[in-house]
Amino acid sequence: MTLTPSHIIEYLYCPRFTYFEYVLAIPQYEEKNYKVMRGRELHDLKLEQNKDYLRRRIGAVSKHIDQYLTNDIIRGRVDEVLGLSNGTMVPLDYKFAEYKDRVYETYRTQLYCYAWLIEENFGHKVEKGFLVYTRSRNKLIEVPITEENKQEVKDTAKAIGRIIEDNFFPKATKYKARCVGCTYRNMCIR
């Protein structure tokens, strides 16, 4: 089984999410979530609309659209992989969201995963990524990506592998407020 950025994000939200969904195979029924479904529709739409303006703002010298990338551990579909004049590359990801003066950790983690995939698939260094908030008139936000950020997602992937391969029951998140909206809250042991 290869992981996706969603696996990484779910684990960072709570390691037990990984256990319930991928060891016990209890689905979370995300297809019932309006924002998830709307985001997927918008993703497909945005792949067809005018993005040359955003690419020019970033300073892209090459583009690879809708890239499905893999390595031995992780896989993901990057909306755009852009090459810059200094030889580095950047992921560009569209979000069906409003920008509220901060970038959520889930979005950052997704970009870190994409950076890992881009470096292994294209052989170019990734030092930053970009988010486009479609509900804020396509606001473009730059997100720095460090070696530590990429190493964190690699370490998280190893931890997920331990849960799935060894049937390991992990500790729940220390942030108890996350349990309120969790789809597994009724079956989770405290």
Automatic annotation (TrEMBL):
User: What residues does the DUF83 domain cover?
Assistant: 6-189
The entry's function note states: CRISPR (clustered regularly interspaced short palindromic repeat) is an adaptive immune system that provides protection against mobile genetic elements (viruses, transposable elements and conjugative plasmids). CRISPR clusters contain sequences complementary to antecedent mobile elements and target invading nucleic acids. CRISPR clusters are transcribed and processed into CRISPR RNA (crRNA).
State the family it belongs to. Answer: Belongs to the CRISPR-associated exonuclease Cas4 family.
Kindly indicate whether the keyword Transport belongs to this entry: no
Under InterPro entries, the record lists: Cas4_exonuclease (IPR051827), CRISPR-assoc_prot_Cas4 (IPR013343), Dna2/Cas4_DUF83 (IPR022765), PDDEXK-like_dom_sf (IPR011604)
What keyword terms does UniProt attach to this protein? Antiviral defense, Exonuclease, Hydrolase, Iron, Iron-sulfur, Manganese, Metal-binding, Nuclease, Plasmid
What is this protein's name?
A: CRISPR-associated exonuclease Cas4
Q: Which GO terms describe its biological process?
A: defense response to virus
What's the cofactor?
Mg(2+); Mn(2+); [4Fe-4S] cluster; iron-sulfur cluster
**Top-level enzyme category:** hydrolase
The GO terms this record gives for MF are: exonuclease activity; iron-sulfur cluster binding; metal ion binding
Quote the cofactor binding remark: Mg(2+) or Mn(2+) required for ssDNA cleavage activity.
Its Enzyme Commission number(s) read 3.1.12.1
